[in-house]
# Entry
Amino acid sequence: MKIAVAGSTGMVGRKLVALATAQGHEVVGLARSTGYDLLAPVGLEEALAGVDAVVDVTQGPALDEKEATEFFVTVAENLGKAASAAGVGRTVVLSIVGVDRSPDYGYYVAKLAQEEATRATAPGPLVVRATQFHEFPGQMLEWNRDGDVVRIVDVPTQPVSTDEVVALLLEAATGQVDGDVDLAGPQVERLVDLVERVVARTGERVRVEAVPAPASMAGGSMVPGPGALRRGPDWDTWFAAR
# Structure
């Protein structure tokens, strides 16, 4: 198959390109560094000529709801229209578990708008929602550090391996998945606890302080429902293997 990956230079995009290539697929990388500005439709239809499936794993440049929404909707519409014109058969977009249950968190509102724009404009749309990646606690530690204190929202989460996310995205792109799907790891955790475990194991000299989260997230919107796929190792097993 010929598969286009939008956001091919990001963490998920790089892994997806590598896995698809290893399985013998032809991959078209769509990112600024490969010559494509997804916020502008110029050249996208030509890039998608002969492509069987498009996978959108782009990341928004900001957490602000308005900025993120404008980015995601614009990219989704540009990709969708170009893919339709090029005769692409299937479009897969990576989203986040809970975006439909978190109206009080702007970035999730933006991701939901991305899903809707993809369904409205893209050929053969399919949405893969994943929980937070196993890397997320370490990222939160870096993003929220303030001197010797790191402030972390107190929320339940069920983190998943990015390798499992990438594998499912490729299954969806190649037609092995029929319909939208949620993906999570095997175990529910508290995000604050995970960050504390990162600190303890790496010797970071910071104090982890729990702070209030949006009500929907504090109430469990980031945790998947009973119909979600559960794959891969739990967080402790993943972290120990790093």
Summary: The CA atoms of residues 3 and 60 lie 22 Å apart. The domain at 2-240 is CATH 3.40.50.720 (Rossmann fold). DSSP finds nine helices and twelve strands in the chain.
